[in-house]
Specification:
This protein is 39% helix and 14% strand. It is of the alpha/beta class and 375 residues long. Strand 10 (222-223) and strand 11 form a beta hairpin. Helix 9 (241-272) packs across helix 12 (359-374). It binds pyridoxal-5'-phosphate.
């Protein structure tokens, strides 16, 4: 659900994020264009090394988008037809699309209403004899409870693939999102904390074997140096070299951008503290969230969001319909099967948040919310 780019205060400000790298982006195009360096080039390799180092991972493989990143991570792990993969109904639909695209069967387990992420107890109940993998989603930029999830998965012999598409830089102790499981999948969709000027994605992993398999899958199953031998059934899933050049410029600013997001979130917490709403959970102990979104919960949500929008606030809902209630995915559950996800979907509102949001804009959003809740 879009936050209305025509709003006075937009949900995201992708234009401002572009402006910060505009000169460098023009230079990159001028440098790469005449050389025709558009596919599998040096900038992609450099970006992979830089993003791996930034995440604290051994390897990174640049891909076309986050959905493909999840899919290829599963495929490289050998997950496919006959296997089940557990994730939550409170996520973007891409998480289950990727499972199905790998040929496996998605199985849903409810979220913990406080963390809004996969509930370890629900995960345990969802495991079965053919569970091959689990995809915890670090939703809204807050790390899922990885210690409990990892212990359960180790015990069950299930691989962990993290959906870190909203969580570039989120941290638990000294480990960043994407580095807890066998692989972590990232999206570089323009609104993400690290956003390309178009689509992009990547996996990070500690395994050289897994990285090599994903490299092969992204390029028609080619065998390293030999582009004419196809070892696997792959496809066209590469990160563009030009997008990688843009992402390298954005990556230089990512720590500062995430600090800006955290400062904005602190500003909202201060201003909203006395209102009748539920704030997002605080940072997990020893960890840090990166506020891809700032999501509050309110009663009478539809009226409140309508009033915010009428006041020019680009508020949105992530996501209004849990996966099992989406027309395409009704086979994954019936109404009432995942009550915590269903309840959240009826109560949540994402407020405008981006690195360059001003104190004045935060004041105006908070005031509009105060008025809406009073009405
Ligand atoms: C939680 C989550 N998973 C997966 C994706 C898929 O990423 P992409 O849009 O790059 O395919 C997204 C972003 O859109 C996301 O937010």
């Amino acid at each position: 659900v879009s936050g209305g780019s025509g709003s006075d205060i937009p949900l995201f400000d992708v234009g401002a994020s572009y402006a910060a790298i505009a000169d460098g982006a023009q230079e990159a195009l001028a440098r790469l264009g005449p050389r025709g360096a558009f596919s599998l080039g040096e900038d992609m390799e450099r970006f992979e090394a830089e993003f791996a180092a930034w995440c604290g991972a051994e390897h990174c493989v640049g891909l076309s988008d986050g959905t493909v990143a999840l899919q290829l991570a599963l495929e490289a792990l050998g997950v496919g037809p006959g296997d089940e993969v557990v994730t939550t109904p409170n996520t973007f639909v891409a998480t289950v699309e990727a499972i199905a695209a790998a040929g496996a069967t998605p199985v849903l387990a409810d979220v913990d209403p406080e963390s809004r992420c996969l509930d370890p107890a629900a995960l345990e109940a969802a495991l079965g004899p053919v569970t091959a993998a689990v995809i915890p989603v670090h939703l809204y930029g807050r790390p899922a409870p990885m210690q409990a999830i990892s212990e359960i998965c180790t015990e069950a012999g299930a691989a962990v693939v993290e959906d870190a598409c909203q969580a570039h830089g989120a941290r638990l102790d000294d480990k960043r999102a994407g580095t807890f499981g066998a692989a972590g999948a990232f999206s570089f969709y323009p609104t993400k904390n690290l956003g390309a000027l178009g689509d992009g994605g990547a996996i990070v992993t500690g395994s050289g074997t897994l990285a090599a398999a994903v490299r092969s899958l992204r390029h028609h199953g080619a065998d390293g140096g030999d582009a004419n031998t196809h070892l696997r059934r792959g496809g066209t899933h590469r990160l563009d070299n030009l997008q990688a050049a843009f992402l390298r410029l954005k990556l230089e600013r990512l720590d500062e951008d995430n600090r800006g997001r955290r400062a904005a979130a602190a500003g909202y917490r201060e201003r909203l503290a006395d209102l009748p709403l539920t704030l997002p959970p605080e940072d997990p102990p020893g960890g840090e969230q990166v506020y891809h979104l700032f999501v509050v919960e309110v009663d009478d949500r539809d009226r409140v969001i309508a009033e915010l929008r009428a006041a020019g606030i680009g508020a949105a809902i992530h996501y209004p319909t849990p996966i099992h209630l989406q027309p395409a995915w009704t086979q994954l559950g019936a109404p009432g099967d995942f009550p915590d996800s269903e309840r959240l979907a009826q109560r949540i509102i994402s407020l405008p948040l981006f690195p360059t949001i001003t104190e004045d804009q935060i004041d105006r959003v908070a005031e509009a919310l105060r008025d809406a809740l009073a009405g």
